Amino acid sequence: MPIRLDSADPDFEQRFVQLLEGKREASQDVNDTVAAIIADVRRRGDVAVVELTNKFDRSHVAPDTLAISADEIARAAASVPDTIRAALQTAHDRIWAHHVKQKPEDHIYTDHLGVTLGTRWTPVDAVGIYVPGGLASYPSSVLMNAVPAQVAGVARIAMVVPTPNGEINPAILLAAQIAGVTEIYRIGGAQAVAALAYGTASIARVDKVVGPGNAYVATAKRQVFGQVGIDMIAGPSEVLVIADGSANPAWVAADLIAQAEHGAGAQSILVTTEKGLADTVAAEVDRQLALLPKQEIARQGWDEFGAIITVASLDEAALLANRIASEHVELAINDPQGLLPAIRHAGAIFLGHHTPEAIGDYVGGSNHVLPTARSARFASGLGVLDFMKRTSILGCDPSSLSALSEAAVTIAEVEALHGHGQSISIRLNR
Amino acid sequence: MPIRLDSADPDFEQRFVQLLEGKREASQDVNDTVAAIIADVRRRGDVAVVELTNKFDRSHVAPDTLAISADEIARAAASVPDTIRAALQTAHDRIWAHHVKQKPEDHIYTDHLGVTLGTRWTPVDAVGIYVPGGLASYPSSVLMNAVPAQVAGVARIAMVVPTPNGEINPAILLAAQIAGVTEIYRIGGAQAVAALAYGTASIARVDKVVGPGNAYVATAKRQVFGQVGIDMIAGPSEVLVIADGSANPAWVAADLIAQAEHGAGAQSILVTTEKGLADTVAAEVDRQLALLPKQEIARQGWDEFGAIITVASLDEAALLANRIASEHVELAINDPQGLLPAIRHAGAIFLGHHTPEAIGDYVGGSNHVLPTARSARFASGLGVLDFMKRTSILGCDPSSLSALSEAAVTIAEVEALHGHGQSISIRLNR
Question: A-B interface: how many C-beta pairs under 8 angstroms?
């Protein structure tokens, strides 16, 4: 059974904090193991990558078969039914159309002193995309990671995907084909992150590594951060549904189940102003779970991490939502636009009764790689900006340099950086 | 003596890679020490912070004197001469005026199917700014970190600054006063980062920690990443000056010295098309160094990490610049605008003979917190966007949900997420 809280209960604050701070992942300390793997890949390159891959993935790769060949990609992609190809193409095109609008513009101007100031955006040269293998190997994630990189203008995209027992979901390779990703390696784990970050004889190093993974992948990303850029440390997925009396309990229940079926610590929370709705939704979840194929994962997730919270008002719901800072927030209420400004911390917000979170996972057009574990307090979903970087531009002429020199030299002296002051003074005609 | 390379030399590539990969910092493995400090602060809160501060900073703080009082800030600030106040105020106002232009705009639109899509920006609630103590304690850095946060609309800015032997540069407190930062703690090191990330009884936790620091601070930031956001892992400062025959050798020499005087692994590189200029600049550096107060640090930095590279053309200079991906790139050439598009990887670019890098450190208006150690390949300087985050907005009506449903349900089935498909199908009237 999910926990039930009411904001009017005397122990509400304490129990809410427990919910907020509850761990949903076994915190595995794999720091030393990962550090050893990274050091090994740096030292022995392909040899280490091959050994580790054959060991952990029970496969039989050699340095010259680390890359998945163009033939193999084409064959796998061709084996996927046309309906799936069409669906992934629709997803690709909608993701592309939305992300194109995120492309930033340079802004360079001259101020009243004649100083040229500005910001110029350029793409990262080479990006590595980590795609998990096994259960959570999703073709939609290939699109969500690759398309923003393509839109940004990244010249080289290298994808890695582990193939446990040599197996790979052909839809993954189809998605890569649709996204135009042609460089794919059958490797995973910390060894794949290390190979991308430092390079080997057969895998050229990249500048940034993105994509979700298990504890080894997350720890490896943390350790190589600085050598390369990384996107974020992904945690279990989560949804917060805010519902009022206008909500359809069956629809809300379906959305809570959709989140819970991710398993691995995924969390579904309902916050509602209606005690009656809370009860009906709880019953609906049970009813729908019984009809779901693979119901065990979803039921376990809902029982272990689910929560139903009743509140006095939508304003109060918004306050809780900001403390939870959920990856996904659904506004299953009569006036979603009205509450929107009050929800400040969320990865993505879904407006109204006809926007199930799952539509955003696939074909809405927005990105489904979003900040988890309360990191929406400070982080954003994946987008085009993650594959670009800003360069500052500054230009003075003799007159503007002269106008600024006194203040600059004064600060240089305060900071005891006399060479800094001298580099300005030497340019002045006095 | 700095190293001298010529791109025409047969061993150039090998020696250039050596330069590129040369370590400029002792790589201290302080992971375990830092992990223990963070765990201690999480467990014992203020008591741990006070103990560690009194031990490492040889000071005498208690939980109720961790915060620097409003009185103390006012007194210190008032003790600073008016010329310095005026210079810092000028810097503040110019940094503010430039960063205001970085404020992003929300973009929400409806597509041809009737789907509402968009990006909304909101500020981070609370930010911690780390300001180093001792030698590299710069009032300008207070402004460069605090002003973008203020412009972003961050409601709470908490600053930490270690006060070794109980001492603090009053100009640091003046800069905080000018920037409107009123919450300041006299703590530093990993314990300060831990207190900001997890909170103690007297220091409320923040959502993001920014600012440079030593190996302990950098490692602590890496370890708390995820619990809070961080800006970057800062390394030694660096400049790359690209000069042609139009450059003034004395000015170029002054800029190379200004960078080298940061010490601690700071690196100055000159790339020039003119062999004669290379020789003259080398001699000028020696001449000017002899006149510099505190010349030892700059001389040591220049001798140990400095480099002069002669190349055949400015195009070749740009290629090398992109491989070096320097924090600062000066274009001391006749046509800086002409070369600008070719320089793709740089934290900041300084245009022409009258833009010494030092002007950007203080009063140019652009930010001086910039990516180091080749991270300009994937990272940007500090700006307003670092203190905000994007939330995706998605909204469907019955008609647009229906139009998207087939593709979405198809992908859900491919991914074996039947609950996802069900959350869409259940909303369709059939």
Answer: 367
Q: How far apart are CA B171 and CA B173, in angstroms?
A: 5
Q: How far apart are CA B303 and CA B308, in angstroms?
A: 11
> Residue B49's closest CA among B208, B226, B189?
B189
- On whether the CB atoms of residues B419 and A299 are closer than 8 A, the answer is no
Question: Residue A305, Cα to own-chain centre: how many angstroms?
Answer: 21
Please calculate the CA angle B406-B409-B411 and round it to the nearest 5 degrees: 110
What's the distance, CA A395 to chain centroid? 37
Question: Could you tell me the residue ranges of all domains in chain A?
Answer: 3-24+235-364, 31-105+124-230, 396-425
For residues B120 and B348, the answer to whether their CB atoms sit within 8 Å is no
Min distance A213 CA to chain B CA atoms (Å) = 15
B31-105+120-230 under CATH 3.40.50.1980, yes or no: yes
Report the top-level CATH class of A3-24+235-364.
Answer: alpha beta
Catalytic choice (A262, A328, A345, A368) = A328
What architecture is domain B3-25+235-360? 3-Layer(aba) Sandwich (3.40)
Rg (CA), chain A: 25
Distance CA B97, CA A115 (A): 12
* Known catalytic residue at A316: no
Select the residue of B90, B171, B404 nearest A363 (Cβ to Cβ).
B404
**One-character DSSP codes across A194-216:** HHHHH--SSS---SEEE----HH
According to DSSP, residue A348 is labeled E
8 Å CB contact between B421 and A363? no
| DSSP characters over A315-332 | HHHHHHHHHHT-SEEEEE
Same CATH topology for A3-24+235-364 and A31-105+124-230?
Answer: yes
Shortest Cα–Cα distance, B53 to chain A (Å)? 24
| B328 bridge partner residues | B239, B348
ipTM of the complex: 0.96
**Dist. CA B430–CA B359, nearest whole Å:** 68
**Helix, strand, or coil here: A158?**
strand
Distance from CA of A74 to the nearest CA of B (A): 19
Pick from A232, A363, A370: which is nearest to B408 by CB?
Answer: A363
Structure tokens at A168: 């790979």
CA distance B175 to B389: 26
pLDDT in tens, chain A (430 residues): 899 999 999 999 999 999 998 888 766 779 899 999 999 999 999 999 999 999 999 999 999 999 999 999 999 999 999 999 999 999 999 999 999 999 999 999 999 999 999 999 999 999 999 999 876 789 999 999 999 999 999 999 999 999 999 899 999 999 999 999 999 999 999 999 999 999 999 999 999 999 998 889 999 999 999 999 999 887 889 999 999 999 999 999 999 999 999 988 999 999 999 999 999 999 999 999 999 988 999 999 999 999 999 999 999 999 999 999 999 999 999 999 999 999 999 999 999 999 999 999 999 999 999 999 999 999 999 999 999 999 999 999 999 999 999 999 999 999 999 999 999 999 996 5
Question: In CATH terms, is domain A31-105+124-230 a member of 3.40.50.720?
Answer: no
